Amino acid sequence: MKVILVKLTISQLIKMNEEPEIAIVGTKGQIVIPQRLRKELAIKPNTKLCVYRRDDKLVIVKLQLPALTGPKDYFKEIDEKNKGKKK
C-alpha cells in the first residue's frame, strides 16, 4: 500500500477525482496525516512508514512488518533451531 505526496495544485487534484487534503508542517517538521486517509489505510499509532524523496515528491509507504510476540519467543525459536549443534 503506497501513499504518495506530490506537488499538485488543487485543480489538478480535482481533475484526478481525488478529494484534496491539506497537511501542514509544524515547527518540528512533523505533519499530521488527515484522519480520512489514516482510516482508509488503517494507519494507527506506532504504524511504521517508510519516507523517501523522488524528485520533488515526498513518498510515504506503509510498511507491513510481521508482528513479534516478544524477544523471548524470538530467542526461543533461535535456540530450537540450534539445539544439539556445537557452538
How would you portray this structure in words?
There is one protein chain. The longest helix has 11 residues, at 71-81. The chain has helices at residues 10-15, 35-40, 71-81, and strands spanning 2-5, 49-54, 57-62. It is 26% helix and 18% strand. The chain has 3 helices and 3 strands, in the order E-H-H-E-E-H. It has a single domain, classed as Pemi-like Protein 1, Chain: D, CATH 2.10.260. A hairpin with a 2-residue loop joins strand 2 and strand 3 (57-62). With 87 residues, the protein is of the alpha+beta class. It has a 3-stranded antiparallel beta sheet with strand order 1-3-2, with no helix packed on it.
Residue share in β-strands: 15-25%
The amount of helix comes to 25-40%
Compute the gyration radius: what is it?
20 Å
> What is the H/E order?
EHHEEH
Helix count equals 3
**Total beta strand runs:** 3
CATH domain class name: Mainly Beta
Low-confidence stretches are none
What structural class is derived from the secondary structure elements?
A: alpha+beta
Number of domains: 1
- Overall morphology: elongated
- How many angstroms does the end-to-end distance come to? 42 Å
Sequence of strands across the biggest β-sheet: 1-3-2
CATH architecture: Ribbon
CATH topology: Pemi-like Protein 1, Chain: D
